[in-house]
Amino acid sequence: MHDLWFGAFLSPEAGGRDRLLRHVTLADRLGLDLIGVQDHPYQADFLDTWTLLSAVAARTERIRLVPDVLNLPLRPPAVLARAAASLDLLSGGRVELGLGAGAFWNAIAAMGGRRLSPPESIEALAEAITVLRALWTPGEPVVFEGTHYRLGGARPGPFPAHPIGIWIGAIKRRMLELTGRMGDGWLCSSFYSPPGAVAGQAKVLDAAAADAGRDPARIRKVYNIGGTFAPLPGPGFLDGPARLWAEQLTELVLGVGMTGFVLAPGPEAERDLRTFAEEVAPAVREAVARERGRPAPAPVERPITLADLDEAGRPRAGKHDPAELTPEQRRLGRHLVEVHDGYRQEMRQVQDAVEQVATELPDAGRPRPANDRPAMRQNLWTLGTYCATFRRLLAVHHTVEDESMFPAVLEREPALAPVIKKLEQEHEVIAELLAGLDEACVELLGDPAALDRVRARADRLADVLSSHFAYEEEELVEPIARLGIRV
User: Fold this and answer.
1) Which CATH number fits domain 5-291: 3.40.50.1820, 2.60.40.420, 3.20.20.30, 3.40.50.720?
2) Residues near 81 by Cβ (< 8 Å), separated by ≥ 6?
3) 381, CA 20 to 30 Å: which among 157, 216, 276, 437?
């Protein structure tokens, strides 16, 4: 039985890219499970989906990434296999692959794609799924002779960080039957398949899965949805308060077997995403657990991410003329920068140590000789010790600031209270990121594949520290110098 997943279905409009990326980071901060992005390569006003998902992966910590769904006639499956596996590795195993047989054939042809009949497009999709899975499976070079796609000895790899699910966008019978035979998941949309229709479609899919000897319950059913949050219930689907949304989505879980809901937010996107994540999703999870006689799931703890720094919302203080400072005062101010420079150097050394371990890990499918293993384990222990030591040293530095330096600054200049409060909050963010890096280093001892998580968390920590130190120096170097406070 699949866990319930809730997500955001975001439009990749090039003109609204800044707003889009804000919604991406908000979805991650709210603890949503998925970000779905539609794929229309022929749409000149849209960002390229794979390029966008790469940027999304870099800006998020935990949320899964789903092209919803890819236009297969313009995405050669052998190249798509490499792209999906690469993004899965770079994101720490957060990619699922939504695939469609194709639509809008005039637009596809205008981009140089082949115009296929409905039976041909379904046949091509089935071949593409075979190609994808073959290139994600370690083994000999792949030879495949299909009607639409051919491989003449392509080497498998790179291999994804986790088993990527192939979720098929399907509405009509033949596509639903293909999904039942070959898919790991099913994607449909309330915009084309309202609840009354989707129940019948699910029956077709389940019957096809059973006929193929598969357990229909193992196929994840994901519903793209849209609606309106309003104080009073309206006449349509998902039209009313969060309580009504939760009731209607719970019915789809229990009656149809839906296990995922991906919201296309309305004009008040941030409000919609917050209401969906904070009110609707917990209520659906609780209602489903109660109906099935299970304990209610624990509230999802919102992860701390780079977005929690809220760089745009950082308080700023007025500055005095630095020309009035004496040499001794300037020295006092510079000392804070020198302390930070030491930690910047230590952070770079942590990242260098991660890369050193990466060069020594065995390639996939080619283990090192047994006599190399003790040395490798020693290197992993050394990296873990390095990260743990850096965590302790930085914790001491922040404790000294919180308990000594910040109170001294506030005593002399109370107007800096908003800045100090923000810096203290950022210390909490950094502490969480340090703990996450420590955990990944421990995991690495038992699983070399965890190196990608260690690298990602080290890089994220480096970005956060760089931003935090720069903000602290910009706001406090001058008052520390002017007030004669010794760091």
Assistant:
1) 3.20.20.30
2) 131, 132, 135, 136
3) 157
